[in-house]
Amino acid sequence: MLHPSGQWITWPPARCKIAADPQKMGAASSFLRRYSLTALFAIPTTDDEGASTVRGLRDEAAEQAERASEAGRVFDAVKNGTDEQKQAVKALADDRGLKVTKAALLDDGWRADIADLLAFTADDEVTS
């Protein structure tokens, strides 16, 4: 870089190891160019990729929290259910070789099957 005053600065090229994948090479080249120039000229930037990653992590954490909450509700419904409901859930669990635990109920399919079974047996009791 040459300044109008005649002073100049040089710096070595940025280097990093990357795979021989053209897309990764292009991404790495763009990344290195962008951040070496912004560092050299002290240009503030927003980290678009970092922000989207954080948003993704927040969304994932919210989904996990919602899944855990729903698993707790279904587990409590089994625990507080009628004897008939408990027997139906136990029979379903035995058939599938699964257990009815909060951890196991984090599985969306297993949790939905038990919730459907509880609703079905509750409907049977109302109509009986």
Describe this structure in words.
With 128 residues, the protein is mostly helical. The chain has a domain at 63-127. Helix content is 66%, strand content 0%. The longest helix has 32 residues, at 48-79. The radius of gyration is 29 Å and the shape is rod-shaped. 6% of the residues are buried.
Task: Break the fold down into its secondary structure elements and pairings.
Layout (H helix, E strand, L loop, with lengths): L21 H19 L7 H32 L3 H14 L11 H20 L1
Helix pairs in contact: 2-4, 3-4
List keywords for this structure.
single chain; 128 residues; mainly alpha; 4 helices
| Spatial separation of the terminal alpha carbons | 86 Å
Could you say which overall geometry the principal axes of the C-alpha atoms support? rod-shaped
- Strand coverage percent: under 5%
Please give the share of residues in helix. 55-70%
Number of strands: 0
Low-confidence stretches: 124-128
SSE order = HHHH
Which structural class do you get from the secondary structure elements? mainly alpha
Q: Rg to the nearest angstrom? A: 29 Å
Tally of DSSP helical segments? 4
Q: Biggest sheet, in brief? A: none
What's the pLDDT, averaged over the residues? 80
